[in-house]
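task queued by scheduler; priority normal; single chain, no ligands, no partner chains; default sampling; output format set to structure tokens
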Amino acid sequence: MKKLLVVVLVIALVAVLAISLVACNNKKGGEEVTIRVAAPEGTPALAICHMVTENKKIDGFNVEYDVVAPANIATEMAAEKADIVIMPINAGANLIANKNAPYKLVSIAVDGSLYLIGNKDGSNIITLDDIKGKTVACIGQGAVPGLTFTYILSANNITVVTEGDPSVDQVKIVWAADGAAANAAVQGGSANYAVVGEPAATALSAKAGYNARMDIQALYNAATSSNDSYPQAGLFVKASLANNGTFMAALFNALSESKNWVLNNKDAVTAYAKANLYESAAFPAGAIERCAVNCERLNIASQDKIINFLSKIMPNVNWTEKKALLF
């Protein structure tokens, strides 16, 4: 009986200690801790869409959500303004690897969702041959869209130029700040095609009457002789939180529930996003699947996929050596 009593007391003590530690994690100076989640407008914001109203607490933490202009998202991580950041995967990885940002890459928030859009006679599929000798307005200079598109062109022996008129084996790129600017370049006659992400590809095609598109994802698969999708946006979490097992389990549960709500309520997403994310949100129901929200927890295979991708689009960095820092 004495031994049994000792065992019971030890178990009770461990339980009390565990509860106390959780409470300490969620409180600071007796006050509940609030963590901040930031994502840029567009598909990355779709990854946290339903969480904004349904997950104001995660594992005892208060959670605030902010959707910011794409041009401002890097500051959220560089200045450590947000505890959880969704942003272009190469930019976030670079901040960790070269600027010692105290974050970990825990998930691919959005897989490849880029498309080249425009008009074509007799077909709704634009090929690489169609764009040779033409000008393309492309979003994401120095980020995943621009780096991926130029990698694909290079892999297909197509030279990229940014000045003058392109020859028959060249593609001229004019850089655009966002999808609206890329569309304006086409409408204004300074570009023949535009590279934009979903849902902008669908929304702009409907608005401007474009009848054809090129799937950048399919071209990346062909260029790499693989079935790997390219990771477009990453989910970065401050290292202190990333090491909190119960919080991370609750976070991924919330992400999964939000993703399922989006996929099962496509017709309701735009109205919900306008009311709760940002006023100009537009997520056509037909584009939501192509937005390629992922938000699965990384495993070894997906970590290797990210390293391989970064090594292709940013070969000046030895990403294999940086792997332990990233994850």
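post-processing summary
- Confidence is low (pLDDT under 50) at residues 6-10, 12-24.
- Residues 77 and 85 are 7 Å apart (CA to CA).
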